Structure formats: C-alpha cells, structure tokens
Amino acid sequence: MSARTHKPHEIVEQALALSRADGCVVIADEHSTANLRWAGNALTTNGVTRGRTLTVIATVDGAEGTASGVVSRSAVTAEELEPLVRAAEAAARGAGPAEDAQPLVTGVPESPDFMDAPAETSSAVFADFAPALGEAFARARAGGRELYGFANHELVSTYVGTSTGLRLRHDQPTGTLELNAKSPDRTRSAWTGRSTRDFKDVDPGALDAELAVRLGWAKRRVDLPAGRYETLLPPTAVADLLIYQLWSASGRDAAEGRTVFSKPGGGTRIGERLSELPLTLRSDPNEPGLECPPFVIAHSSGSDESVFDNGLPTHATEWIDRGVLKHLTTTRHSAGLTGLPVAPALGNLILDGGNRSLDEMVADTERGLLLTCLWYIREVDPATLLLTGLTRDGVYLVENGEVTGQVNNFRFNESPLDLLGRASEAGRTERTLPREWSDWFTRAAMPPLRIPDFNMSSVSQGV
Question: Which stretches in the chain have pLDDT values below 70?
C-alpha cells in the first residue's frame, strides 16, 4: 500500500514511532497544482498534479555535541517509510556535531486541523478566470495583439511533527499569473503579472487593457545611451530588489563582516538610518492576502534557517523601521552567537510607502524613465550588495508628465540598499508579483519608487 493512501498526519505519526534517534522531526508536504498556458490568443495546455514529499530529520546526541541527519523523498510507500527513517538516523550518526544544534522546540499548541485531510486545488480555481481570459483573447485579437502566458495555482499542506510533542499544520495557497502582449511582428512586447491566493481577484480583461496601452506607447521608439536617469521603479521591480536584499540580510553573516549590513570595525549596522524617507520594510505571517506560515518550516539548515527551529512560532517583524535598520534574520543559534534577537525569515515582504499612484508619479515627472520589470538579476559584490540585471518588456520615456515612447533596454548596476537611501519618493503600496523571483517568493506588497539617478550601465539589445 502506498503511503499516499494514508492521511499525512498518520504518516508523520508512523515515522515518529519508528524513530530510534534522540530527537526526530518529520515534515510531510502535500502538493497539488493546477495550471493553464496560452499562446497567440489561445489556450495550449492545462493540467493538475498531486504529490507528497516526506522529510525526516534525526538528531543524535554525542559526547562532542548533537548531530543531525536530513533525508527527503517523494512518493514514499509504506514499505519505504522505515528505510527512510533509518537513512536519516544513519546520516546523523555519520555526521559531526551540528553547529546549529539547539533543543527541539517545545510548548507550541497543536494545530486544531492537524488530523484533517490536506487542502487541494483543482481546475475549479479557474472557473471564473478562464472565461474572462477567453474574452480577453477576443479583444486582443480584435486589437491586433497577441497574448501569451500562464496561470498557476498551488496548494501545499505542510504537517510538522516532532518527538518533543509538536503537531503543527499550515495550508499555503500560491497563485501566479504572468501575461505578455506582443505585436504581430514581435518588435513590441509588454508584460504584467499578479500574485493571488485564489484567482478571484484577477481580471485578465483589465490586464489586457493595461498591456494595450503599453504597446501603444511603444509605437514610437527612442534610442538612449547608457547613463544615470531619473527612473520610476514599479512595485514588481522594487519587490525583486528588496527580496534579494532580505535573502542577504543574515545576522550572522553581517556580524562576521561579510555583507553590506556589516559595520566597519565590527558588529552590524542595526540602528543605522538607511533612508531619509520614512520607509518601513516588514514581514507578517498574518498580513491580509499575503498570509504565510506562522511557524518555522525548515527542511535544511543554512545561514538563516535551522532544522532545529522547526515549529518555532514566527511573528510580525520590522526589518527597517521608518528608515532605520531594526532586524536581521537569525536562527536561535545565530542569535546566540551574535547577541541579536531571534528573527526567523518569513514568507512575505511588505514595504510601506506613500499615498500616490504610479500614474500620479508619472504625471509629476519632467523627464525620466518608467520601467516595466527587471530580469536576470545577479550579485556582483556581496560587500555592497551590488546587483546587475536587465530591464525587459518595455522601458518608457516620460516627458512633461506623459509617456512619449519606448526606449531601448539596459543593463543596470545598483544596490537595493543604496536605492533605498537615494529614493526621493515612494508611492502607494500594492500587492505585486516579483518577476525574477516568482518561482521562489510571490507574497510581496511594494510601492513604486522614484530614483533620481538610477544607473543604466550599458545598453541591452533584448526586447
């Protein structure tokens, strides 16, 4: 009999019962996905998938400390369950003491739905979206443009059980929509994307209308050289930059002098003002529409997560408070090493901005650039968090408060931390989909930012 026929909480309990280690954590992830794809104003594929991944973390005490072993496998059958547990124990016994070793978490109340069946998505999630998408195809066809893209919805039910008595469960819906409009000759392209929990708040007709305007802007082409330009970064571009900044905000790495958050001479830059604007960068597991796990789920250990912290409750955290650096990410172990408070990484990111819309910011621009999104972002220098990447699917010239045409794409070189310090205006915060990191991080809300001197380091020939 396949373990897939057992309820996830039963598999967790069976694995814990089989354990002979000093400590054990079992994580069962139940995945279900539904997706649609389209090209040239017509649906091309759709599908639904189901799966389970089981992770066993064994801890073994020794004279020199506690070791851990982690083994993850998918499609585990009932016959394979005990070998999986034994493999984790063997990995722990063969490893040296774990640097991040801590007592397993205790005292967290059991999730009331721990023994319930996993939540699942299906093609029904697109019941309203798909007909509206068909109407958008018809309008695009009549308007002489072609729509390409995909919609994906995933539901992951995660069950965490430990030998210290934790029994926790979290259901995480994740929906993404990416939509491209192209001119028939492929010389003009515009993109937009949305993050959603259930596709009930996504209007493909409105998105197509937005893209039609951008393709209209692109009928006039203006070539510009590399240089520094006043630039309006839309929320999606701001999200991509600040998500990478969050990923680089390890408290331990900063305390050891290896990142942009390291203080010259030792220590971290916590307490330092990073922006003259009253910007607050925060995460909150209960943020409406952007809800994420309210406890740590760690399948492996790294600089900003530890398998020993599984089940540790997470809380609303301000990374930057009104322009001042307040927290860096830490595990219980790295917090003890650095003297910083425990601040686990969370699954969403919000930058609180101002009140004006991006359109209002455009209307107040004498001459500058309006970006659509960023692409192929890579780190150049961790000490300054200098990133490089490309603009894509539309860079527009703004003159006297109006978009007057499309310019060529660029390669940029910028540090998100420097951008926060140089930003002269932040617009209204809105939920957005980061384009570069949408496979890993989708729950973000950002404002547009005005950067007086964004560094377009070279011209790019991309569309």
Answer: 1-5, 462-463
**Residue 2's pLDDT is what?**
46
Domain range summary for the chain, segments of one domain joined by +? 3-214, 220-463
| Rounded alpha-carbon distances, angstroms, from residue 413 to 199, 241, 249, 374, 459 | 35, 12, 19, 12, 12
Question: Which amino acid is residue 428, in one-letter code?
Answer: R
How far, in Å, CA of 29 to CA of 39, rounded? 32
Query: Which numeric CATH code is attached to 3-214?
Result: 3.30.2290.10
Q: Bridge partners of 72?
A: 55
Amino acid (1-letter code) at residue 417? L
Whether the full predicted model's pTM is greater than 0.85, yes or no, is yes
Compute CA distances 426 → 13, 131, 280, 419, whole Å: 50, 36, 11, 11
Task: Identify residue 30 by its one-letter amino acid code.
Answer: E
